[in-house]
Design goal:
By secondary structure, the chain is an alpha/beta fold. The protein contains 11 helices and 12 strands.
């Protein structure tokens, strides 16, 4: 502990992201990145944007990007906030909508950044158990302080139907409900279409997963214009330029190549279904996933051991040493070839 640290810095327990090894010799299935590159049109646009005008600050309002998002999603510009990755958009949203004296709730098993933000901002939180099939129980997601869910959820891959999202919104009219749709393009039902009906709904998207732009850091929030204004107030009290010129350019170009992304997403879903079946044949229990990863537990070999053995074979997956899920692996869906290698290596290990 540093001598000069603030009380806040001393007490934090920061989020630990999945490893990013520098040497590229791993099959990397630990951070839910897209195994296919971004659209070639995105790469062209970024190359063209990397020029002399990088000396100029980017547009602090992200206007051109937000216009493209509004058009693509059929919403109004003042219903969109754009930021530097959805983690940052989530952090701003926690600051914009939650108060220290009102308990927020999220599922017991979910994205592990939520408790980290709660701690950073001094918020009280309670967690709600999942059902035995790892599904979020909508009837228990209730709090006058705020509700946060990921749909599809991480690291389980399980998705709630839109009817369940509606019931959560109806049950919490006095609080903001944040629905983090990081994985929605891989099989979930998006709640973006509900923002006109529910002034308390905030939907978070990222370009890191389905749009293969984790390296650019692009995130969005969709909601009633009143909610968006609150997030803008937080952002403009923190950093006027959270999205840089290259990220804004990449974001616009990605929205213009829907065909490319539809194809990539289709391939990942197909590979996921194949891989899930192969795991089940080998004694794994795997809930059906609506995301670009699967959540798997073996009947005989402990997940901690599998994690280490895969790592020795240059395959990185995510292992959470946490109550209830410490016998599960979260395995990102890579290319067909990568997943065939995983199955071969598992056959040797088991
Ligand atoms: C990956 C992920 C994010 C973070 O996305 P970035 O835009 O890369 O910050 C947010 N929420 C969930 C549930 C995720 O899995």
């Amino acid at each position: 502990m540093g001598r000069y640290w603030s009380r806040l810095a001393r007490k934090l327990e920061p989020y630990v992201p999945g490893e990013q090894p520098g040497d590229g010799s791993y099959i990397k299935l630990n951070t839910n990145e897209n195994p296919y590159g971004p659209s070639p049109k995105v790469l062209d646009a970024v190359r063209r944007a990397a020029g002399e005008n990088l000396r100029l600050y980017p547009d602090p309002t992200c206007d051109a990007f937000i216009s493209a998002v509004a058009e693509r999603y059929g919403v109004k510009k003042d219903q969109v906030f754009a930021g530097n990755g959805s983690d940052e958009v989530l952090a701003f949203s926690f600051m914009a909508f939650f108060d220290p004296d009102r308990t927020i709730v999220f599922p017991e098993i979910t994205y592990s950044f939520y408790p980290v933000y709660a701690q950073l901002f001094g918020l009280d939180y309670a967690t709600v158990p999942l059902d035995p099939g790892f599904n979020i129980r909508p009837e228990l997601m209730k709090s006058s302080g705020g509700v946060v869910i990921a749909n599809p959820n991480a690291p389980t891959g399980r998705a709630l139907p839109l009817s369940a999202i509606r019931s959560i919104l109806d049950g919490n009219p006095e609080a903001v409900v944040i629905v983090d749709e990081a994985y929605v393009d891989f099989g979930g039902e998006s709640a973006v279409g509900l923002i006109n009906e529910y002034p308390n709904l905030l939907v978070i998207h990222t370009f890191s997963k389905s749009r293969a732009l984790a390296g650019m850091r692009i995130g969005l929030a969709f909601g009633d214009s009143g909610l968006i204004r609150a997030i803008e107030r937080i952002k403009n009290s923190f950093n006027s330029y959270t999205m840089d010129r290259l990220a804004l350019t990449a974001g616009i170009a990605a929205l213009e190549d829907e065909e490319y992304y539809r194809d990539v997403i289709g391939r990942i879903i197909k590979t996921r279904e194949w891989f899930t079946a192969e795991l089940r044949k080998r004694g794994f229990s795997v809930p059906d996933s609506s995301a670009n990863f699967v959540f798997a537990s073996h009947s005989r070999v402990h997940a901690g051991e599998l994690y280490h053995r895969l790592r020795e074979n240059r395959i990185l997956v995510r292992y959470f040493k946490k109550p209830q899920i410490d016998n599960h692996l979260r395995i990102t869906i890579g290319t067909d070839e990568e997943m065939r290698t995983v199955v071969e290596v598992l056959d040797r290990i088991l």
